[in-house]
Amino acid sequence: MAKTSFRSALVTGASSGIGEQIARTLAARGCALTLVARRTERLAALAQELGAAVAVDWLAADLSSDDGIGIVERRLGEHPVELLVNNAGVGSGGRFHELPAEGEAAQVMLNVLAVVRLTRAAAPAMVAAGRGGILNVSSIAGNQPLYGYATYGATKAFVTSFTESIAFELRGTGVHVSVLKPGYTDTEMNAGTVPDRSSVQGRLLWLGAEQVAVAAVDAVERGRVHCVPGMTWKLADAVTQSLPRAAVRVLSSRVRAS
Ligand SMILES: NC(=O)c1ccc[n+]([C@@H]2O[C@H](COP(=O)([O-])OP(=O)(O)OC[C@H]3O[C@@H](n4cnc5c(N)ncnc54)[C@H](OP(=O)(O)O)[C@@H]3O)[C@@H](O)[C@H]2O)c1
């Protein structure tokens, strides 16, 4: 079994998808875990399964609420971890002016404010210890404007920029800071829209959550700031970042969310 350099980690959004797979990857590498999400029965079952290999506990928290973020901040203060994984996130589809305002605000709270507050809660102990890691889950969606996902794209643009800045600031402290920018990944977030993964479209565009998780854990272990899993998405990342913004806007406006 490959060992990770992190002895303990707190993973948000560990009850499914990429977060669950990050938890599995870390456990397989010998890292003790604190799992965070809202669906307690899923967390309890995963904790029991992974607990056969490493120490695992879990914490129920709604990270789109001030109270929920506070619960996790307090845990990080009382029990510092060597790796923080800010993975929990949601995206609501539709034209912005027609979507319920509360849902959009809750999305910003979860995708942005929780990341900022939990990073602020965890980082000082890592810097003081001279070792640690912060892995923030953003998206290729943050590279460009998104028709039908305006708030989601903007929250992920924030996560990417925020993480890159923290990575500069913590360079040389022993704390590795990485941003994960997946493309389409086969998780509950895309339930009902994933094509046959063995089709041409499936092979070219769609990633497995396990593949994404392994790439992300490798990146933060090695201190790589950016992680974009899969050749198709590496290319998409390079193209959207190198074209003039006006051209990116034209291209993006032609891609309609379903
Ligand atoms: N799938 C993709 O194509 C894709 C692409 C790029 C980036 N991402 C990003 O990857 C991350 C994980 O998403 P996923 O694809 O793995 O989707 P997923 O399977 O739906 O997982 C989302 C996770 O976030 C948790 N979560 C949602 N709302 C929460 C809340 N209010 N408080 C606490 N936890 C909450 C969910 O747990 P509970 O419901 O139990 O709370 C779940 O564990 C997200 O940040 C997403 O933006 C996904």
Describe what is shown at a glance:
The protein is an alpha/beta fold and 258 residues long. Helix content is 49%, strand content 15%. The chain contains nine helices and nine strands.
Q: What is the overall shape?
A: globular
Q: Enumerate the spans where pLDDT stays under 50 for 5 or more consecutive residues.
A: none
Which kinds of small molecule does this entry bind, naming each only once?
NADP nicotinamide-adenine-dinucleotide phosphate
| Amino-to-carboxy terminus distance | 42 Å
Would you write up a description of this structure?
α1 (17-28) crosses α7 (209-222) and α4 runs parallel beside α5. The strands form 2 sheets. The protein has a 7-stranded parallel beta sheet, with helices on both faces. The chain has a two-stranded parallel ribbon with strand order 7-8. It has one domain (8-254): NAD(P)-binding Rossmann-like Domain (Rossmann fold). β5 (132-137), α5 (150-169) and β6 (175-180) form a beta-alpha-beta unit. The longest helix is centred in the middle third of the chain and has 29 residues, at 101-129. The protein has helices at 17-28, 40-50, 66-78, 101-129, 150-169, 200-205, 209-222, 231-242, 245-254, and strands at 8-12, 32-37, 56-60, 83-86, 132-137, 175-180, 185-186, 207-208, 226-227. The protein has 9 helices and 9 strands. With 258 residues, the chain is an alpha/beta fold. Residues 12-19, 37-39, 42, 61-64, 87-91, 110, 137, 139, 182, 184-185, 187-190 line the site of NADP nicotinamide-adenine-dinucleotide phosphate (NAP). NADP nicotinamide-adenine-dinucleotide phosphate (NAP) binds at residues 12-19, 37-39, 42, 61-64, 87-91, 110, 137, 139, 182, 184-185, 187-190.
